[in-house]
Specification:
The chain is mainly α. The longest helix is centred in the middle third of the chain and has 19 residues. It is built from 21 helices and no strands.
């Protein structure tokens, strides 16, 4: 499913630049994007609206989410969301907001998060069996299928509503939590995604896929070093888990620590040797740490596993360029143009240092 793959790719690309702190607003070091003067004016307007007695519940949530997009650590917006969810008996959403508050301010809100999580644990995770559960099972299937259909049609608001409806009845349902987090990632709503993955990783501490998603999302909120430290604690107990190794490598790259990333990606290839993603990531890290021979082996292996990957071709070309293997570099560039199209190939190549090694590569892009 293309949209789901896009969501996963969004979790892999580097985080945005740190934001400047808005005047008078505590962000607890959480940043999602650069704040420009126009954004600050908008933020002041949103901050004013958060304090107003808004008429509709949807208005409250939309305004709070708008604030959190700009300043992910704004506690008042999260508290307002928590009150809204509690008033509507949305136990899963209330738990998510409480977990996010505890993440922002553990001293004041850890107890609240514990209470919300205990309440969630007393409720069903999925429909049971027997005739009395038939209606619940039908509702569950229809809601999940509606969510999947909305993702295919790129109706992300509809998908979010569908998965939320499941969680309203089954606050611990793993598939609904997974796809709600993905939808928030697709929408670029990193604070809301963080709420989902914090809540899910607390409910299911043994599920390292939730742990990996939590850490990657934290990296997107401007806390990559903290996310890597948290992730390393999980790796101590689960040293061979592919999702943890993958995410640790990606966050290490985000932190500008390619040598450390190489270690994690090597572990990823050892634990999941048939993954083209693993070998491509390993090859990229080896390239960036000036290990061209090993990088070429890893990237060639990834190319054999999945010839359709543009990134693999791009770094094979860069590896060849750095080693002054001109004919090989040209072959990879031609293959990239044929596979990705001239415009996309040009965008990818110009995003790397390849033109510095061989300025004539531009001739291929005209």
């Amino acid at each position: 499913m293309k949209s789901l793959r896009t969501a996963l790719l969004l979790l892999l690309i580097p985080a945005c630049a740190p934001a400047q702190q808005a005047p008078g607003v505590s962000t607890t070091n959480l940043t999602a994007q650069t704040v420009h003067p126009v954004d600050l004016i908008w933020f002041e307007h949103l901050g004013w609206r958060v304090q107003q007695p808004l008429s509709a519940e949807n208005d409250v949530e939309l305004v709070c989410r708008d604030v959190l997009r700009l300043v992910p650590g704004q506690e008042e917006s999260v508290r307002r969301l928590l009150r809204l969810y509690e008033d509507n008996d949305a136990h899963a959403l209330a738990g998510m907001a409480a977990c996010y508050l505890a993440f922002l301010n553990p001293t004041n809100y850890s107890g609240l998060a514990i209470i919300q999580l205990e309440q969630a644990r007393t409720r069903p995770a999925e429909p049971g069996s027997g005739p009395e559960w038939l209606a619940a099972q039908n509702f569950f299937d229809e809601s999940m299928n509606r969510g999947f259909d909305c993702i295919r049609r790129q109706d992300l608001i509809g998908a979010e509503n569908a998965f939320r409806s499941v969680l309203h009845t089954f606050p611990r349902n793993r598939p609904a939590l997974t796809y709600l987090g993905i939808v928030n990632v697709l929408r670029g709503e990193w604070p809301m995604a963080m709420m989902v993955f914090l809540y899910a990783s607390e409910l299911y501490p043994e599920d390292m896929n939730f742990a990996a998603s939590r850490a990657r999302t934290q990296g997107y909120l401007g806390q990559a070093p903290q996310a890597l430290t948290w992730l390393e604690e999980r790796l101590y107990a689960h040293p061979d888990h592919p999702a943890l190794l993958q995410t640790a490598g990606l966050i290490a790259m985000q932190c500008g620590r390619p040598a450390e990333a190489t270690k994690y990606f090597a572990g990823w290839t050892a634990s999941d040797g048939k993954s083209a993603d693993a070998w491509t990531s390993y090859g990229i890290a080896l390239t960036l740490t000036d290990q061209p021979v090993f990088a070429r082996v890893a990237l060639t292996k990834a190319r054999q596993m999945d010839p359709s990957r543009n990134t693999t071709l791009l770094f094979l070309a860069l590896n060849a360029a750095r080693a002054q293997r001109t004919a090989e570099m040209k072959g990879h560039v031609r293959a990239l143009i044929d596979q990705a199209g001239r415009e996309e190939a040009a965008r990818l190549i110009r995003a790397t240092s390849l033109p510095l090694y061989f300025p004539s590569v531009e001739d291929f892009l005209r």
